[in-house]
Amino acid sequence: xxxxxxNRLVREQLPQKWKVTGDIAVKSGRLLDTTDEIDMEKTLRxxxxxxxxxxxxxxxxxxxxxxxxxxASRLTGENGSVHTIEPVAENLNRIDETIRHNxxxxxxxxxxxxxxxxxxxxxxxxxxxEGMCIDPxxxxxxxxxxxxxxxxxxxxxxxxxxxxxxxxxHEWTDSPxxxxxxxxxxxxxxxxxxxxxxIWLVQSKE
Length: 206
Hints:
An eight-stranded mixed beta sheet has the order 6-5-4-3-7-8-10-9. Strands 1-2 form a two-stranded antiparallel sheet. Helix 5 links the parallel strand 5 and strand 6. The longest helix has 12 residues, at about 90-100. It has about 210 residues and is of the alpha/beta class. Helix content is about 25%, strand content about 30%. It has helices at about 1-10, 40-50, 65-75, 90-100, 120-125, 155, 175-180, and strands spanning about 15-20, 25-30, 55-60, 80-85, 110-115, 130-135, 140-145, 160-170, 185-190, 195-205.
């Protein structure tokens, strides 16, 4: 009861502080939090580490706090590139903070926009999107695509061209096999990312 009241009435009023997820610092905690560690996008980042190699071009659809952007930047190196697309202004600030407070290469570009459309679930969680609407069929080919777009993946994925993809699939969408197997991809389940989503590694056979 006391913890519930604290979370609702007190915690959100306290100054933010930096926490560590893996070896990436993110500004996601509050002053009186009892731990400085957090497992943010743990399985998604494990998928990124599995497929991104030096020199790769990486597209991240849904930047969140920027942890996947930092992870990809470190792995692809100075000869690679990372392009992150994020529709929510508040998250753009978070991504920028995370990039500036962590070691990365000078290979990151961040775009304020959204691919295909924004789901009701995303609007409920993050608010109305900002920036440009990007047609997924107009995106370039990337070596690796990372997707965390709150349910819009069913419309985005079939139009993309890639070698490997790390995908967060949400329970309110159809099974990922229905849209990932269209190109006879190799699809591997990596694990759950919270109670309502799972992470998949998709490798193109083309």
